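Input (structure):
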């Protein structure tokens, strides 16, 4: 996996990221065309926030994976920081190659380097393969995630 380059996403990566976000039944129902102005606005807001990293994995000059890492300062655990991993995607033709594991390992190391004491994530109940994947990496399903659509 030495050919994987992890880097901060640029605005030019939006089409590749949106394509990966859209490439499953859940994403297909909620994403718009990559040129939709909401993506540019969101990218600029994420990029300006020092607690956010929108990262892409690149192979051979092509974006093949992405994730968003958010560092959350808190008072609990004696003022500990935690990291939230979101929007993890691997391009469909790259799945099964170990790329997802490498992506999550990168996020964990990045969180550790930023002083976080834990990483957390949520995954949709319907994504059974994702659940097995995260459990295999040492994550535990110790909490119940709740959401309220606004």
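Output (sequence):
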């Amino acid at each position: 996996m030495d050919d994987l380059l992890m880097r901060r996403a640029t605005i030019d990566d939006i089409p590749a990221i949106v394509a990966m976000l859209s490439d499953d039944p859940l994403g297909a129902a909620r994403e718009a065309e990559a040129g939709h102005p909401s993506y540019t606005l969101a990218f600029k807001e994420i990029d300006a926030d020092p607690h956010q990293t929108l990262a892409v994995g690149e192979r051979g000059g092509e974006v093949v994976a992405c994730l968003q890492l958010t560092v959350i300062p808190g008072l609990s655990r004696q003022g500990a920081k935690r990291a939230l991993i979101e929007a993890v995607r691997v391009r469909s033709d790259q799945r099964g190659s170990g790329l997802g594991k490498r992506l999550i390992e990168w996020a964990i190391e990045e969180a550790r380097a930023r002083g976080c004491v834990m990483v957390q994530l949520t995954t949709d109940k319907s994504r059974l393969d994702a659940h097995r994947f995260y459990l295999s990496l040492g994550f535990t399903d110790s909490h119940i995630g709740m959401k309220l659509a606004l």
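Notes: The first strand starts at residue 5 and ends at 8. The helical segments are 14-22, 25-30, 37-48, 76-79, 99-113, 128-136.
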